[in-house]
Amino acid sequence: MPFLQVQTNLALDVAQQEALIEGLAKATETSLSAPVERIVVTLNILSSHQTFVAGKMAAPLVLVNTNLKEGRSLALKQALLAALSDVIEKTLHIEKSSYRIMIHDLVDGTFC
Fold this sequence. Notes:
Blueprint lengths: L2 E6 L5 H19 L7 E6 L6 E2 L2 E2 L4 E8 L4 H19 L6 E8 L6
Parallel strand pairs: 1-2, 5-6
Antiparallel strand pairs: 1-5, 3-4
């Protein structure tokens, strides 16, 4: 049940949005061997005046909060981070300093 919530202040056209969402879903499916039917990816586009990054208003931002059912190994999580990073960099043509990916483990009983 990987659940990825993406927030960005980048001006993305529909094709970029779809490529990002589909790329992140595929990267999650491949790196975790997760059934695609269980993967959820959402994208929220923020206006630039709604973000403050590294001491600057409106600095480029892509933030990916990834929620996973606990129990996956560190190696799997590192593979997921690498795969998600690759998708973000190739799809959006941005540097590592402009995005953040966080993985959160969810304990049984804390979601349904």
